Amino acid sequence: MNDDTNTAVPNARPVLDVRDFSVDLTAGKTISPIVDKVSFEVHEGRTLGIVGESGCGKSMLSLGIMKLVPSPPARIAGGQVLLDGTDLVPYSNGQMQEIRGNRISMIFQEPMTSLNPVYTVGYQIIEALRAHSSMTSAQARSRAIDLLRQVGISNPEKRVDEYPHRLSGGMRQRIVIAIALACNPRVLIADEPTTALDVTIQAQILDLMRSLKSESGTAIILISHDLGVIAEMADDVVVMYAGRIIEQAPVHSLFAAPSHPYTQGLLASIPTVDGDQERLQPIPGTVPPPHDRPDGCAFNPRCRFSDAKCRTERPPLEEKISGHKVACWHTDLGAQP
Amino acid sequence: MTERNETPVLEVENLTKHFAVGSRGLFGGGKQTVKALDGVSFTVGKGKTIAIVGESGCGKSTLGRTLLRLEQPTSGKVRLDGIDVTAASASALRAMRRKMQIVFQDPFSSLHPKMTAAQLVAEPMLLHKVATKKDARARVAALFDLVGLAPYQMDRYPHQFSGGQRQRIAIARALAVEPSLIVCDEPVSALDVSIQAQIINLLTDLQAKLGVSYVFISHDLGVVRYISDEIAVMYLGRVVEQGTKRELFSSPRHPYTQALLSAVPRPDPSYRSQRIVLKGDLPNPLSPPPGCRFSSRCGHARDICRRQEPQLDAASPSHRVACHFWKDLGSLPGRDAARADTAATLPASHNA
């Protein structure tokens, strides 16, 4: 559990320090930024939640950190990704192979497609282990069984020889997590890890991720469109819109005082399970495509506070209260969630 | 709830749909059946919404398809405006389909990519002869206006629309034949939250304006709370609890409903850890547990639960629960236990 005392950012060097990171997308002759000068830090044993709707750049950002952006059409256009102080951006693909699955791991939304259907789950965990260590196959197998037990798979000695199609969606996602954690990564990037799962199974997986994090101290980047999942899991939150960070804050501060009109709009448009609502307040319009982003604040065509300045000048991401940053010219107006 | 004095738009009585699943082995050793729907009953009044809630594999989509007789029911009755759908001949059924329409989850695959938006919306009208080719366009324009699309978009193709707009086209298409009932099968699950809210508001506005009834199939309890009058919670082909929105949300009786409600992540960091985390996965529908189907995952299961299937029991005239122990459990048991449980497995601080 997290309480307020826990939300202050530790002084230690962040495990992952992303600075002015940009990814461009080329379509024909136009080059448009899909991740636009994004900066954040992730600390040991903490979870950074990245939230936003489709097209906000959250998945491209995570692929960018892993240097897995599909290139072309996308390419890393600038910035730094410092893992324990070392910049990964200039790394070659060969050097990244050493990092991926070892010091930074990733889990994806669809456990069906991230496992290879023709190999047993044990084989796939052992493959990850042996790629990054000098274990014998017997050692790797027993470690694989340990990992399965750790992610809550019952009867791991038997399950280790099962093929993925024999397992349920929730079990598959546990296997994917076991593979991701095989080499004790410094950072785990989880891109919509529970979106494809039912809520009761989602609850199990979120519980698992929380307890694994507190055991291992792995820093987690959790990407989700679901503000409920973010509220439940994250220590710090980044809200993205049209490739940019528009709000960044410790989780309690973000939900207690959402300050960007977009964040407020997102919260107002969720139908809640607790309490009756008169009417949902949708955000009008849609997210602009990357090649057609408006000048100034990217949210201005959908924003009720929009004025001349919003349409011409891009608001910087500025600290409004301690630790709570907002990119809006009108945060004083938008205090109402 | 249905007013007692008028015929409900939809009456579903003991609806059952069993699927025979392939033969096992080369020599056919006996077919197995999946009881995708097993004795489901409910009614929907004019201008009302019943939500069918449950997780994947609970039978909610099969229910939607069987209501429209896109699947032939194994047994049971469906009556639409008092007329038996299950017994209708092919031609009678075609005429009846005008009164019941469906909106699917995925607006990317439910619209023909080579037809314009206007053609898509006009098609059902022409098919059911609600309009002639000549006046169809004017009616399409009116429907576009009704669902919040602009007239200049009429001759565009589906790929030129966003997901939310496509769902508006699908809704306009369903409304084109002035149905009394629309089955909405996860109509907003593929949409972003800000767009989802637009579509939900549209559906509620249309209902207020046109008096259409909805069977709203969803896994999202937040959406369901917002849109429905009545709710049926399904688990492995059976309704385990059914009641008005107020009854279901303020005093859920079935342990599964309670777990489902508690498992929804709330956009509130202080809510953390109040969840009832169910053990295990949904059982294999080919071999559901004996007795109560939920017994293998239920924290309160006792011997009788594993032997005898509980029937729906009236907790109030409008609230029914299929659990042997609903009276003993109270409206929200388990919650405190769950809290203690989670607290025990989690350390006090992530930095520890």
UniProtKB/TrEMBL annotation, chain A:
Name used for this protein in its record: ABC transporter ATP-binding protein
Localization, UniProt: Cell inner membrane
Matches recorded under InterPro entries: AAA+_ATPase, ABC_Ni/Peptide_Import, ABC_transporter-like_ATP-bd, ABC_transporter-like_CS, Oligopep_ABC_C, P-loop_NTPase
SUPFAM superfamilies: P-loop containing nucleoside triphosphate hydrolases
Domain of life the protein comes from: Bacteria
Gene Ontology CC terms, in alphabetical order: plasma membrane
Membrane topology, record value: Peripheral membrane protein
Organism lineage string: Bacteria, Pseudomonadati, Pseudomonadota, Alphaproteobacteria, Hyphomicrobiales
Biological process terms in GO annotation: peptide transport; transmembrane transport
Pfam families the UniProt entry points to: ABC_tran, oligo_HPY
ABC transporter domain span: 18-267
GO terms, molecular function: ATP binding; ATP hydrolysis activity
From TrEMBL, chain B:
Domain of life from the UniProt record: Bacteria
Gene3D superfamilies: P-loop containing nucleotide triphosphate hydrolases
Domain ABC transporter: 10-261
Entry annotated with the keyword Nucleotide-binding: yes
GO cellular component: plasma membrane
Membrane topology: Peripheral membrane protein
UniProtKB keywords: ATP-binding, Nucleotide-binding, Transport
GO molecular function annotation: ATP binding; ATP hydrolysis activity
GO biological process, one term: peptide transport
Localization in the cell: Cell inner membrane
PROSITE patterns found in the cross-reference section: ABC_TRANSPORTER_1 (PS00211), ABC_TRANSPORTER_2 (PS50893)
Family: Belongs to the ABC transporter superfamily.
UniProt-recorded name of the protein: Dipeptide ABC transporter ATP-binding protein
The species this protein was found in: Aquibium carbonis
